[in-house]
Structure prediction request, 192 residues.
Amino acid sequence: MKQRNSTYTTFPVLRSERLVLREMRSEDLERLCSYLGDFEVSKSLSSQPHPFLEVDGRDYIEQALANNTAENVTWAIELDGQFCGGFKAKELHGAASVGYWLGREHWGKGLMSEALRVVLDYLFEARALHVVRTGVFKENPASMRVLTKMSFKITGEAKHACRARGNVELDETQLQITRNDFLRLTNSDVNS
Prediction:
């Protein structure tokens, strides 16, 4: 296991109204494999294979736990004490980016917007980042809505491979949010 930077020795557990974003656990394996084994979930992710097997789940958890949290943080998203998805922030000392997913049964409930808000608050406040980037496959309008609702702005387009689809290159929209845009959003929420 990699040595963690002394500045970030404690895993950053985040809480929102309904969710806890915490470190991955071995007990998450069954749900992780079930959710990422669903092609409807994995087809919108760049790095997860399909089929998603138990060995893939063990690797996912092992890599998440081995992260140097000064550089990369992989959270398990928990709802009502149960694992329901994943969220990753990476390259936290450079061009920081985020990626996320939820099990299909949790779609359409506003959970990802809630998780994204608490992660951005952490990244901009506790980690003092100035910009956070992400990419979304064009055929994933639900994720695009989550991002634009949170004030992410489109910065360009690219092609990105989807491992679940045999590494086929898909059109991707690239987006980013600045600390100032996020602060404007959160201040407007407080004042409304």
